[in-house]
Amino acid sequence: MPILQRVTCPDDPRLMLEQRMCVAPVSKIVKGRLTEPEPERRECEDPRCLTLTTRQTLELFLDPFDCDDPDVSRPLLNGGIRVTDLVHVFDRSGQGRGFHSGEFRWEAGPLLAFGRLSGITNAGTHHEPVMDCQRCEDPGFLQGRLCGSIARAEDPALRGAQIFANYALRADRVEGDGLHAQDVRGTIEGVLVRGCGCC
Question: Phi and psi dihedrals of 89, rounded to 5?
Fold first, then answer.
C-alpha cells in the first residue's frame, strides 16, 4: 500500500535552485462565511496565561482578480475553498491576538486541490514604516499563507501542481468568544507552480 504524504510547499531553497519550474500568477477576490465558533477557555499556571481556543468551518467563494493567469488560474481555479476545522488560539479572548490553522479543500468543477492554511489573527501588518493603513491591533483581520496540491484535474499535466499563496481575510464581527462572521471578504495572491516538463 502506498504511503500518503502531506502536502509540502514548493519553497525549499535547495529544490528551487536545482529544479526547473514554471510559475503562473494566482489572483482572487474571495467572499464567504464562518460558522459560529465552538469556544473553550484554557488556563495555564506556569507560565501564567489564559487562552481561548475555537473551532469552526470557513467557506470561501472565489472570483478572478486583475493579475490572475488567463490560461490556468482564471478559468480553472475559482470555485470554493472549504476549511472544515479552522482552529484559533487567542490571547485571553477572541478580541486578542491569535494564530489559526486548518486543512482546506479547494474545489472548482472537476479540479480538486488539498492543502493547509495558517496565519495570524487580529494583527495589522500594513502599518508604518511600510504602509500606514492599519494599526498593529486589527480585530477581525486574518493573514497568512496557504499551500496546496492539485489532486484531480481534467488536464493530467496539472495533477501534482502546487498552489502557493498569501491570503488576507476580513471577518465582520469579533466578540469575546471568537469570530462571528456571517460575512468574510478578502484576497488571495500567489502562484501556481508546475514542473517544467508540463509547460
Answer: -125, 120
Which residues is 149 bridged to in the sheet? Answer: 114, 162
| SS3 call for 76 | helix
Q: Which residue has the cell 490560461?
A: 71
138 — pLDDT class (breaks 50, 70, 90)? confident
Separation between Cα atoms, residue 192 and residue 198, nearest integer Å: 12
Contacts within 8 Å (CB) and 24+ apart, 152-158 = 152/110, 152/111, 152/112, 153/76, 153/110, 153/111, 153/112, 154/110, 154/111, 157/194, 157/198, 158/72, 158/76, 158/111, 158/194, 158/198
CA–CA separation, 170 and 122 (whole Å):
9
pLDDT reading at 92 higher than 90: yes
Q: pLDDT of 97-110, one tens digit each?
A: 999 999 999 999 99
Among residues 60, 49, 127, which one has the least CA distance to residue 89?
Answer: 49
Dihedral angle at the C-alpha atoms of 169, 175, 177, 182, nearest 10 degrees? -50
The residue behind cell 484535474 is 153
| The model's pTM | 0.91
Distance CA 131, CA 116 (A): 28
